[in-house]
Design brief:
Belongs to the GADD45 family. Pfam families: Ribosomal_L7Ae. One of its GO terms (cellular component) is nucleus. This is Ribosomal protein eL8/eL30/eS12/Gadd45 domain-containing protein. This protein has a single domain, classed as Ribosomal protein L30/S12 (60s Ribosomal Protein L30, Chain: A). The chain has 5 helices and 5 strands, in the order H-E-H-E-H-E-H-E-H-E. 29% of the residues are buried.
Length: 163
């Protein structure tokens, strides 16, 4: 590998880490602002009722993805494309569960949200709606998605690593 190729790989790794951090921060901020919809069915309901409020669709999966989930993701992708909603595919459901599940449980324990004893939820589809506070992070994720599409990757993808 030439020094230029090595430098290019390092820059790409740094870019991916930056975008992953931006996505995580965006999702946490959206959850705290009550601008995050979690779950396939809840997302479908929101997309049906008010697609114009959705600014980002995150489709998360891992190796255990089943056919039913693939079908749901295909339908959601199609709807988001028709509605001009930015879509991002993410590998790392356990990371999302740890990142968002704790925050969700904390808000439930403090009196907001769902019952703290319930299951942490479906993290296979996340919709961000109208995030007021962290628009720079949304812009960074959106720019990554546009760049990926311009390089021939129709469905931009990120891998969230455990920390």
């Amino acid at each position: 590998m030439t020094p230029e190729q090595t430098a290019g790989c390092n820059m790409m790794e740094t870019r991916m880490e930056t975008v992953c951090s931006a996505l995580e921060e965006l999702l946490v901020a959206a959850l705290e602002e009550d601008c995050l919809t979690m779950g396939i069915y809840e997302s479908a309901k929101l997309l049906n009722a008010d697609p114009d409020s959705v600014v980002l669709c995150v489709l998360a999966s891992d190796d255990q993805e089943d056919v039913g989930l693939q079908i749901h993701h295909t339908l959601l992708r199609s709807f988001c494309c028709d509605s001009d909603i930015t879509i991002l595919r993410v590998a790392g459901v356990p990371r999302l569960r740890r990142l968002l599940g704790r925050r969700r449980e904390a808000s439930a324990d403090s009196g907001g949200g769902a019952d703290g004893g319930e299951e942490p939820g479906d993290f296979n589809c996340l919709l961000v709606t109208d995030p007021h506070a962290d628009h720079l992070r949304l812009q960074e994720v959106g720019t990554y998605c546009m760049e990926s599409r311009s390089h021939g990757q129709w469905l931009p993808e990120l891998v969230l690593e455990e920390r």
